[in-house]
Write a structure and sequence with these properties.
Chain lengths: 126, 253
């Protein structure tokens, strides 16, 4: 049943967020430390276990895949509620700081990724 | 009639959002095929349309949540809010190849650290150039350059003025929007092709919203790898900025 998959996803999500909150408290930070990332790792582990031991059914996986497919629409809805007016009206310092950062980070990403050796078996699929 | 429609829109906010976003995605797909012959991805156009609508909404209402501040479109706040966004991001983890993620884990962590220090240094330097001299303001603006959540969290922790905190949020939001818009354009230059490259990008570009929208507009299959790393960004920033980074700045000025 697809709901099992969605419930599993919800379980991983909540556990991850909770662990992220606890990690934040333990470190004395007023923020969730990697909660979503922890939830992702949990889901990867659960899926691995389910496949290995054969308890995860294709029908249940549909309940996760549907939400993964909703990802782009959700991101578009997120774009629709950004505070664009404030971002653009921040004055020269705000614009300069953000542009300089994005430029420097893009340069860094490019520098690191140019060092990656791509072997034939892991070339992009499409 | 107007009140009837308004009631319908408000009572079914989330459902209406699905319809609106569906329409935007459909139009973007059409524009992508007809206008750019598939060169610009449909989702990249959809995100640009979304940001434009957010600007229009912000102008009309003077609020902080873009189009979602209009009564008719208040459901967008739920659909595009943190809860569903994070839920959908976690769901994409189902597509992760564990071996890929494990192999690139260390470089993701390195990118995460550079992605915290580099923006911070740039933010602090530019704030310094614009005449800020006290360690608290410098650190807060530098923290805002990391992400728009790290800025206010740091500012509140070390006691920055509300004016400086507002500036730090503005820097972070503008950075996130820049990442959303420029990632598809810079994808070739940044060699965004493999899971590993997406993890490096997730660590360096920071902000979950910027990374998630930027990768969505570039290559959907890379999203989970970038997001996996990026979701640690805010936490790491909130850990380092009010402590280690603040002490360094205080020692320097």
């Amino acid at each position: 049943m697809p709901l099992y998959g969605t419930a599993l996803l919800a379980g991983c999500h909540l556990t991850g967020i909770l662990l992220g909150e606890l990690l934040g408290r333990a470190l004395g930070v007023q923020a969730n430390v990697g909660g979503v990332g922890i939830a992702m790792l949990l889901l990867i582990a659960v899926r691995f276990h389910g496949h290995k031991h054969g308890w995860l059914q294709v029908k249940s996986e549909e309940g996760v895949n549907y939400w993964a497919a909703l990802y782009i629409p959700v991101v578009i809805a997120m774009a629709m509620q950004q505070n664009v007016v404030k971002a653009l009206s921040g004055g020269p310092m705000v614009l300069l700081a953000a542009i300089a950062t994005v430029t420097a980070c893009a340069g860094c990403v490019s520098f690191i990724n140019r060092r990656e050796v791509i072997t034939a078996d892991e070339a992009p699929k499409n | 009639m107007n009140t009837l429609l308004q009631k319908l829109a408000v009572d079914n906010g989330l459902i209406l959002s699905f319809a609106i976003v569906g329409l935007v995605v459909f139009c973007s797909g059409f524009l992508s095929r007809k206008l750019t012959f598939g060169r610009v991805q449909g989702s990249a156009i959809a995100i640009l349309i979304g940001l434009t609508l957010a600007y229009v909404g912000g102008r009309m209402t003077g609020g902080s949540k873009g189009l979602a501040d209009l009564t008719y479109f208040s459901g967008l706040a739920l659909m595009g809010g943190n809860m569903l966004r994070d839920f959908a991001i976690v769901a994409t983890a189902f597509e992760v190849q564990p071996a890929e993620a494990k192999r690139a884990g260390w470089i993701g962590a390195v990118a995460l650290l550079i992605g915290t220090f580099l923006p911070f240094i740039i933010g602090v330097s530019i704030a310094y150039a614009f005449g800020y001299r006290d360690a608290i303001s410098l650190t807060t603006i530098g923290a805002g350059t990391v992400t728009y959540i790290v800025g206010p969290v740091t500012g509140a922790a070390i006691g920055a003025s509300s004016e400086v905190i507002t500036l730090s949020i503005a820097v972070g939001v503008f950075k996130a929007i820049l990442v959303m818009v420029t990632t598809p354009m810079l994808a070739k230059f940044m060699r965004l092709k493999t899971p590993r490259s997406a993890m490096v990008f997730g660590g360096l570009a920071g902000t979950v919203s910027g990374v998630s929208a930027g990768l969505a507009a570039t290559d959907r299959s890379l999203v989970p790898y970038g997001a996996l790393v990026a979701t640690f960004h805010t936490g790491l920033g909130c850990l380092l900025a009010p402590s280690l980074l603040y002490f360094i700045v205080r020692a320097l000025v």
